[in-house]
Amino acid sequence: MLGALMYLFLWVSFAISRRLWFRWSVSGVSNLPPRHQMGMILASNHLDWTDIHVIGASLPLAYRPSWIAKSEIFRNPIVKWWLYQMQVIPIQRGKRDTAALDEAVHALKQGAVVVIFPEGHRSRTGGLQHGRGGAVRLAIASGCPIVPVALHGTEHGPRGALSRKPIHVHFGEPYYPKAEDAALPKDRMDQLTEEMMLHIATILPEQYQGVYHQRMLEQSSPVAE
After folding, report:
1. In sequence order, what DSSP letters do the residues of 131-192 get, joined into one string?
2. Is position 81 within any domain?
3. What pTM, to 2 d.p., does this model score?
4. Where in the sequence is the domain holding 183, given as residue range(s)?
């Protein structure tokens, strides 16, 4: 209850600030699956530590998100308390943290909106980096769709936002990764991960497509006869 009230206060504060000061636009909200029907995974590119706040404030209030974050930020007791109030799931990076994944799957099956940054960390260049397959595994295990999310403008951080540099968030069309079996071989997982990252790249401006830009060009090139 306390966490819900704190989230409401933050959401309303951001909503007012977005309309009065920030140059912050949101599109594709109609692509979000109906909130009462299912959980969903929001898979987004990652430019700055403020991205989670931007996504949360760009979602309708009913879509209060959870997200998965590195366990290191839970070391401070006060920060840990705050993060749990905000429905954050800690995960040990660089390891197959099955407990964290199980917790996320359980939350999704209960209807949670889980935000994941599949690159694993912020992009230093602004362009998409190679993705990881955690979001795909969660989608397959939970039966929930992946909604690709594209952010740009947040790379300037809080100072950029306060100086009114444009920020844009776009929610893409949801899709379900097609898996023949829950135990996927590595090559099939790699294919599904690339598919997810291309869904994100497709809705990003060209300069943010990063390592997937060339793949985008290959897909759009006509096949020689």
Report:
1. P-SHHHHHHHHHTPPEEEEEEESGGGHHHHHHTT--EEEEE---B----S-SS--HHHHHHH
2. yes
3. 0.89
4. 2-11+23-43+63-220
